Amino acid sequence: MRRTASQPLLRHFLGDDEFDEHLKPFRDVDPLTKQLSCISLPKRDSRKSCEEFWCEKYGAWRQEQRSGAAKLKKQLKARWAIQKLIDEQLGRYKAHYRRSMGPTKMSDVAELLMPKWAPPHEAAAVFWLGDWRPSTVLELLRSIARSLDVWDPVGVERALSHLINDVRNEEAVIDEEMIEVQSNCVLHLPFGPAQNDTNWPGLPQLRSEFRKVHRVIVKAQNLRIKALEMVVKKVLSQSDAAEFLVAYMGIQDVINEITAKFKSRNAVLLPLKNS
Fold first, then answer.
1. What is the phi/psi pair of residue 150, to 5°?
2. For 222, phi and psi rounded to 5 degrees?
3. 10 Å Cβ neighbour count for 18?
4. What proportions of the chain, in percent to the nearest 5, are helix, strand and coil?
5. How far is residue 265's CA from residue 275's CA, in Å, rounded to a whole number?
6. All residues at 6 or more sequence positions from 90 whose CB lies less than 8 Å from its CB, including other chains
7. Looking at the DSSP assignment, which residues form a beta bridge with residue 132?
8. What is the mean pLDDT of each run of 10 residues along the chain (275 residues)?
9. What residues does the DOG1 domain cover (predicted)?
């Protein structure tokens, strides 16, 4: 045992026997063990608890991240599903408009201009060269945009105004082309009794004019596709585009139903009036 400066003084006050008895426990302790016992080390269990605490905190954070990512994934899937439905609905309109773009017979041109499936009152109100006038559809969107609660009303109104102006200009160009075709028909076609002879001299010119009419119809159909695509893909957000397509289809159904009922009511009343 190492002797300290305080031991003689302690021996003086305690006496030899009592002093030896006081130091006995310290003599039995190994010096290295005594030195180590004075060093305060963190317990292994405490260190493990700390690690577990931080692991739990990190685990909870990771779980929150997983939950958030799962919600985002679900919303993304919903967006993809909505976009797929929008594209499918747009594809149906395109397919409908493009039916008239292929090769046609002269007898088909009149059907394209005034389709039999359209009630006369509907055709007179909203039709232009065989289907709804594109600018009418855009004006319809402008009128229902407030009820759609669009995400950017000012931006949508500005974009719609610009698009309507462009579409009307294109409609005017197509109208001018159609007027020119009609003028040529009036001025140059040999009108008279119906000719069934395939050798009739005026037949080639008649076919030429019908081809011109068909080209005008194709331009009108392309303009309809362009206007609808611009609205759905450029002007409106995804959710607004979906609401517009639903509203547009509903309005078409209502107008068609009303005009069809009006036509059928007139069909019933006419015989009664004649009688």
1. -65, 155
2. -65, -35
3. 12
4. 80, 0, 20
5. 16
6. 228, 229, 232, 245
7. 127
8. 52 58 56 51 56 79 87 86 94 90 80 84 86 92 77 85 96 96 78 58 79 93 95 91 91 85 58 38
9. 51-265
